[in-house]
Specification:
The chain is of the alpha/beta class. It has a single domain, classed as NAD(P)-binding Rossmann-like Domain (Rossmann fold, 3-Layer(aba) Sandwich). About 40% of the residues lie in helices and about 15% in strands. Strands 3-2-1-4-5-6-11 form a seven-stranded parallel sheet, sandwiched between helices. The protein has a two-stranded parallel sheet with strand order 7-10. It has a two-stranded parallel sheet with strand order 8-13. The N terminus and C terminus are likely disordered.
Length: about 350
């Protein structure tokens, strides 16, 4: 943590004392014996629903307050539901009211979409404006801990990317992808909030592409094709995170009092061609320009899982360094990239075992 130089005396000194006292208060408030009161958004997703269920069973959690437009379907004595739409103006007043009434100390903001959608204006309101209202309510409540999820795509797939991207690498995004731009804006908002609230723990989990039997996103739809498009002359390394590991990382972020950005990914990398075959498909190599134009057209016709800008993911590297998450968050993935893909098909056929052996 960086403080202003206290060369003029009392004002800066008072600020240091105030922040030090706040740090002590948050440690006391989140001692090992205390039970957390957690509010959550984004519980309509598979990951969100599973996190509600896990938290409701955790001994260190007193209650889970769901803030969403749709009930997650998880019930129990610890779970309560408030119907709130983050795209509505001035919803922060209602959010603040709920946070105060429920005495919330931890906010898990999962309203980030799982992938690109055609309703870009609505997505913009949910991601950017919704996050702004959540942060405003957290400020009023003086939340002790804030956790949110982002995507590895904020780094962007670029020709000059290093082999492994650390958390301090510049966020260059993906040109022309509204979904990625929204993710980058959310991260910028959260970072500004963290700087203004050094007394709070703020964790951002940058997830690799999430995959698993219960996850329905653009990655799974892409791999579910019989003939899977790829870029002619390119076979980049693919990094994933199994849905169970994504859930485990979120639970660790709730349990542990840490601040910062953490890259979350499973162990192991695969060539894109191997990933496609493991999923049961066959690579269909096409020239980059042709594939991008076709993808853009199909996206406009709502016949494709992602816009043309995402074709760059099939050409360049975007691989995360997870050392910080291992060191500070205690995150260790239980599933590797191969297992994440094979899990889409249930019990793996014999030819999958051969492919796994060849990929090692």
């Amino acid at each position: 943590m960086t403080f202003k130089h206290a060369d003029s005396g009392s004002a800066a000194a008072d600020e240091l004392v105030s922040r030090d006292e706040s740090a002590k208060l948050r440690r006391l408030r989140h001692g090992r014996g205390s039970a957390r009161a957690i509010a959550m958004t984004g519980t309509a997703s598979s990951l969100g629903r599973r996190l509600v269920a896990e938290l409701a069973e955790a001994q260190h959690v007193a209650r889970v307050v769901v803030l969403d437009t749709v009930h997650p379907g998880v019930t129990g004595s610890k779970v309560s539901f408030y119907s709130l739409d983050l795209t509505q103006p001035a919803v922060d007043a209602r959010l603040t009211e709920v946070l105060e009434a429920e005495e919330i100390d931890t906010f898990v903001h999962l309203s980030a979409l799982e992938g690109p959608i055609h309703a870009t204006a609505w997505a913009h309101e949910l991601e950017r404006s919704g996050t702004m209202q959540v942060l405003h309510a957290c400020h009023k409540r003086r939340i002790a801990k804030l956790i949110t999820v982002s995507s590895a795509l904020v780094y962007g797939p670029h020709r000059d990317n290093p082999n492994f991207l650390r958390e301090d690498h510049p966020l260059r995004g993906l040109h022309g992808a509204h979904y990625v731009a929204d993710q980058m804006d959310v991260e910028a908002q959260v970072e500004k909030w963290r700087e203004k609230h050094p007394e709070s723990f703020v964790s951002v989990l940058r997830m690799a592409l999430v995959l698993g039997p219960k996850t329905q996103n653009f990655v799974r739809r892409y791999l579910s094709r019989t003939f899977v498009p790829s870029v002619l002359g390119y076979d980049p390394l693919v990094q994933l995170v199994h849905e169970n590991d994504a859930l485990a990382a979120l639970m660790l972020a709730v349990e542990r009092d840490v601040s910062g950005v953490f890259n979350i990914a499973s162990e192991g990398l695969l060539r894109l061609s191997t990933a496609i075959r493991l999923a049961g498909g066959l690579p269909l190599p096409l020239p980059f320009g042709t594939l991008r134009r076709v993808a853009s057209l199909l996206w406009a016709l709502q016949l494709c899982e992602a816009p043309g800008a995402f074709v760059s993911l099939l050409r360049h590297l975007c691989v995360l360094d997870t050392a910080r998450a291992q060191r500070e968050l205690g995150f260790r993935s239980r599933y590797n990239a191969r297992e994440a893909i094979v899990s889409l098909r249930g019990a793996a056929p014999l030819h999958d075992a051969k492919l796994l052996s060849e990929a090692r």
